[in-house]
Design goal:
The chain is mostly helical. Helices cover 70% and strands 0% of the residues. Belongs to the sel-1 family.
Length: 161
């Protein structure tokens, strides 16, 4: 009745949204289970942020990001680095992503080397190396704020004012 338009109004609109959310999650799950990496990312993101009517579930989000990462997805590798509580795992995931051409992961590694965080030594030379790699990244997944911060960090590391 709701799908057919027999019932309308706010309650019907809420049901329509819920039905669309259920259909979206069903399709994402089916495609992800068939090996579609974009669907894996979509499902992981839905669990990570509580989208499409799903409750936030970081364990399930991590599982789906991991499946996408196991299939070589550079974005999933970067996200796993961001989600990890372990500094060593952060560096591992970001390095995998950066070596695969992930711009955002290059920036994370540059910051870690510039400030000596995540268990890494403070090493301006390596920080500049990752900033240079960031500029030639295949996957332009850093936001404009990160790019601006990267440019500032490079100026600071180079001694420019």
């Amino acid at each position: 009745m709701v799908r057919g338009g027999t019932i309308s109004g706010d309650i019907a609109d809420q049901w329509i949204k819920r039905i669309k959310d259920l259909d979206t999650v069903k399709k994402l799950r089916e495609d992800a289970e068939k090996g579609n990496v974009l669907a894996m990312l979509g499902l992981a993101d839905a669990y990570h942020h509580g989208k499409h009517g799903l409750a936030q579930d970081q364990d399930l989000a991590t599982q789906w990001f991991r499946k996408a990462a196991d299939n070589g997805d550079v974005t999933a590798l970067d996200v796993l680095g961001c989600m990890s509580a372990s500094p060593a795992l952060k560096v591992h995931w970001w390095t995998c992503s950066a070596e695969g051409g992930g711009e955002n992961a290059c920036f994370h590694l540059a910051k870690a080397f510039a400030h000596g965080t995540c268990g890494l030594p403070k090493d301006p030379h390596l920080a500049k190396k990752w900033l240079a790699k960031m500029q030639g990244s295949k996957l332009r997944n850093a936001d404009s704020g990160s790019r601006d911060n990267a440019a500032k960090l490079l100026r600071d590391l180079s001694g420019a004012q």
